[in-house]
Design brief:
The chain is an alpha/beta fold. The chain is built from 16 helices and 13 strands.
């Protein structure tokens, strides 16, 4: 089988595409993959590292207000369609899989116009502009949240597949995360992470905890592992290194966690943003969470993502403007002190997970090919 993957801009679009491609290749070792992205996007670094052939088109996103840049974007879109058709005719894929981000617009549109079967995956509760545009052209749409299905009423075929990133994280070996952190085998810990680049509001919350609570009683014997993001590591460390909590090892500060799936698997509680990929992973693992949605994303979709977990009791949501040391301390105290509460949240999280997401997507893809 020959598969074209496309999607980009953020890891939330890239990693699901890679998870789908990896799963399809595991099912059939003869599967050949081509990823089409942009030269400047994050995918230009991530995809080649995964050992997948990578080609580019030149495309930018639409501005949400009237701008002459949008005229240029329309021109680039049709140039991107032309370039995509050339790549597709050369590669001759059996199917094209798009996972969102403006780059997949011209690629998936070109495939549909060429009569190539197309599968579109939406990770967020509120779909982005590109996927809304593409839904009436593609063969099949798969969604990560049941709440987003009404947005795709015009789709030819629609199914609730879940997010394939949740399937991949289940391969982590229990205990490997604790070992990598040099923790004792039974040490419980809270993981705070704002994604690959970190989140300043989460860093500030942990700095506040360390400076205001010397003995960190709100952790009830747990440790707190903070991934600051490479850019913010030195500044965060400078403000936390002299605190009692850091010096005694109650708080551990890392710039980046390379084995995130392992560290997340062993954690007892997660604090972070509510991007679709992270939520797929914590629901698959059944991790209780404190979610701080980023307000800087399109359609405020992270708040909608988090609300899906809050509604079933799987998470506590704190809006960014409401984050302060006292609020985070109170929530931590409540959750780290009660294993029963965490277990109930864990059950609710697993209720939302789709552990066979990758196989559901593979089934849908095989159906549209046939």
């Amino acid at each position: 089988m020959r598969i074209v993957l496309t999607g980009g801009g953020t890891g939330g679009h890239i990693y699901p595409a890679l998870a789908i491609g990896t799963y399809m290749k595991e099912q059939n070792s003869n599967t050949q993959l081509l990823f089409i992205g942009t030269e400047k996007g994050l995918e230009s670094k991530i995809v080649p590292q995964a050992g997948i052939r990578f080609e580019t088109i030149n495309i930018t996103g639409f501005k949400r207000k009237l701008s002459y840049d949008n005229v240029r974007t329309v021109i680039r879109f049709f140039q991107g369609v032309k370039r995509s058709k050339k790549l597709l005719k050369e590669f001759k894929p059996d199917v094209v899989v798009g996972t969102g981000g403006y780059v997949c617009g011209p690629v998936v549109y070109a495939a549909a116009r060429l009569g190539i079967p197309t599968f579109l995956h939406e990770q967020n509760a509120i779909p982005g502009l590109t996927n809304k545009f593409l839904m009436s052209f593609v063969s099949h749409v798969g969604v990560s949240f049941e709440d987003s299905m009404p947005y795709f009423r015009k789709a030819k075929q629609l199914s609730y597949t879940g997010n394939p990133c949740g399937t991949s994280v289940l391969k982590a070996v229990p205990g490997a995360g604790r070992k990598s952190l040099d923790f004792e085998p039974n040490q419980k810990y809270v993981l705070a992470a704002g994604g690959s680049r970190g989140a300043r509001v989460i860093n500030e919350a942990v700095i506040g905890l360390a400076n205001e609570f010397e003995d960190m009683t709100c952790l009830h014997g747990m440790k707190l592992v903070l991934a600051t993001g490479e850019v913010n590591y030195e500044a965060t460390l400078e403000r936390i290194k002299d605190t009692h909590a850091y010096r005694t090892g109650q708080i551990i500060v890392k710039p980046y966690i390379h084995n995130m799936s392992e560290v997340l698997t062993d954690s007892s509680l997660f604090i972070g943003r509510s991007g679709a990929s992270f939520l797929a992973e914590i629901t698959a693992l059944g991790k209780p969470s404190i979610l701080i949605p980023s307000p800087y994303v399109t359609n405020n979709h992270q708040e909608a993502n988090a609300s899906s977990l809050v509604q079933v009791g799987a998470a506590v949501m704190v809006l960014e403007q409401e984050v302060n040391t006292a609020r985070i301390s109170t929530i931590l105290d409540e959750l780290t002190s009660s294993e029963h509460k965490r277990n109930e949240m864990s059950k609710a999280a697993k209720f939302l997970s789709v552990p066979d997401s990758a196989s559901r997507i593979a089934l849908a893809i095989n159906r549209i090919i046939k």
